[in-house]
């Protein structure tokens, strides 16, 4: 695939930062199309010391492992991504990593922890489309986990509206799809 080929070329050229950024930008589609194992293998091709310090790789690893129900690892990667993004001054990316972690936690029966993560995040800006989607996904998972039956349909409707407005139905591939 183009994803595999391009990463191989960038790594062979000694450009791991570019390869990690490319993987982060390109992995959503692969995850949505069932390529989660490929994405995990691509993350594992990086040197471990580089991967530990790469916000982009931590994001990709967390999101991919969420798809595989490797939730403890996913949470660790997403938390590391949040910290690394914040250290480099990218507040929007840090917020997105945190919101993904919150949605995942809500979906695995930890709604209170998800609420705590949500509460620590500032309100996403208008241009933070996926962050708004993740907030809605998190609220949906919390309602489902807590058996708040009457709020499930409106929360699902709000999530679907956000996806439709964003024109990215695969934007929550890790949060709604079945594991592969």
Summary tags:
180 residues; mainly alpha; 11 helices; 77% helix; disordered C terminus
Secondary structure tally, helices: 11
pLDDT averaged residue by residue: 90
Helix content: over 70%
Compressed to H and E, one letter per element, the order equals: HHHHHHHHHHH
Estimated radius of gyration: 16 Å
Number of strands: 0
- Assess the beta-strand content as a share of residues: under 5%
* Sheet having the most strands: none
**Uncertain parts:** 171-180
Helix/strand/pairing category: mainly alpha
Measure the end-to-end span.
19 Å
What global shape is seen?
Answer: globular
Brief sketch in words of this structure:
The chain has 180 residues and is mainly α.
Could you please describe the fold and organization of this structure?
This protein is mostly helical and 180 residues long. Helices cover 77% and strands 0% of the residues. Helix 6 packs antiparallel against helix 7 and helix 8 runs antiparallel to helix 9. The two termini are 19 Å apart.
Furnish the topology, listing elements before pairings.
Layout: H1 2-12, H2 16-32, H3 36-44, H4 48-52, H5 55-67, H6 71-87, H7 91-107, H8 111-119, H9 129-146, H10 149-166, H11 173-176
């Amino acid at each position: 695939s183009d994803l595999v080929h391009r990463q191989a070329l960038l790594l062979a050229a000694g450009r791991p930062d570019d390869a990690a950024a490319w993987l982060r930008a390109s992995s959503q589609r692969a995850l949505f199309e069932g390529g989660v194992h490929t994405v995990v293998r691509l993350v594992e091709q990086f040197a471990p010391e580089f991967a530990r310090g790469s916000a982009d790789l931590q994001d990709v690893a967390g999101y991919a492992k969420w798809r595989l129900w490797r939730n403890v690892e996913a949470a660790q990667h997403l938390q590391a991504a949040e910290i690394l993004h914040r250290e480099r001054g990218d507040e929007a990316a840090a917020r997105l990593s945190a919101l993904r972690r919150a949605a995942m936690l809500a979906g695995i029966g930890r709604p209170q922890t998800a609420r705590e993560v949500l509460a620590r995040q500032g309100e996403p800006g208008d241009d933070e489309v996926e962050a708004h989607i993740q907030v809605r996904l998190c609220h949906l998972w919390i309602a489902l986990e807590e058996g708040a039956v009457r709020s499930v349909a409106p929360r699902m409707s709000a999530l679907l509206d956000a996806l439709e407005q964003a024109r990215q139905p695969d934007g929550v591939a890790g949060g709604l799809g079945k594991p592969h």
